[in-house]
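Possible regression after last week's pipeline update?

I re-ran a chain I had predicted before the update to compare outputs. Posting the input and the new output here so someone can diff against the archived version. Not blocking, just want to make sure nothing changed silently.
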Amino acid sequence: MKVLVTGGSGFIAAHVIDSLLQGGHNVVFTARTASKADHILQNHQNIPKDRLSYVIVEDIAKENAFDEAVKSDPPFDAVLHTASPFHFNVTDPKKDLLDPAIVGTTGILKSIKSYAPSVKRVVVTSSFAAIVNPKQTPEVYDESCWNPVTMEEALKTDPSTAYRGSKTFAEKAAWDFVEKEKPNFDLCTANPPLVIGPVVHQFDSLTSLNTSNENVRDMIQGKFKDGLPPTRVALWVDVRDIALAHVRAMERPDAGGKRFFVTAGFFTNSEVADIIKKNFPDLVSKLPDNYDAQSKEFPYKIDNSRSKEVLGLQYRSLEESITDLVKSLKAAGA
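New output (post-update):
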């Protein structure tokens, strides 16, 4: 298949591109700058240009931002929309998070409908943020759950609420678009929680890592030497598994019209520290000498059976994920 991947220089997207190429697909990705795009091409120097190329989309929140990107010869069969901001360095929630997520998502769907009639499947990277309900925790989280956040709350409270709002409103807008517009394509969403794993994308420095991996970077740099922080987000998935989920959601006919809660399960920071100590003796001195095992008693359960049954996912272990992440951070100079 010929596939457009938006946000190609992002953490998840870089692995999505790897997974697509391994599956024999041809890829065009979007990037904000040529330097970011060229870095991805350098990671795949053995892949010919007719199998991997890029188009520049400087601002996904602009009107008609994707009109040219979705045009292709030969035409696209599918679009994987991963472009959306995930960070808490927010000064203006609307400009920094809400508009890029919501307008970026509805914008690309409009562009596909208008200019890419050959596209039959669109996969949108959503998030557990669009599933979680901080106000009233259900007994079991699955794809039927939605975050009840309001636009007023997203605009007026803290950055994490704005982020959750951005993912919730963007995903709802995508489903609404497909229902109302009846376009040439159907839709899937992938909803991961904390995404952990090896870094293959370009980042400016170790201070600008994706939010999900910052915690492990801080651990191996000795920032928690005096004590481990509490585990903020207790659900996780390996980046290579969420990448494969995107590809299989694109490939498998019966995935159409479905959300996928893509998670390997629960973890704690004390487990992560144990894994680092076991596999990297040179980093033991960076971690606290003693710490209590953090509780894995959580007020809810998870049901990720749809991702296993429909997409055939077999989730990596936390040990494999953390080990490969630390190796990649060390290689990057952490």
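Follow-up from reviewer: compared with the archived run. The first strand starts at residue 2 and ends at 6. Marking as no regression found.
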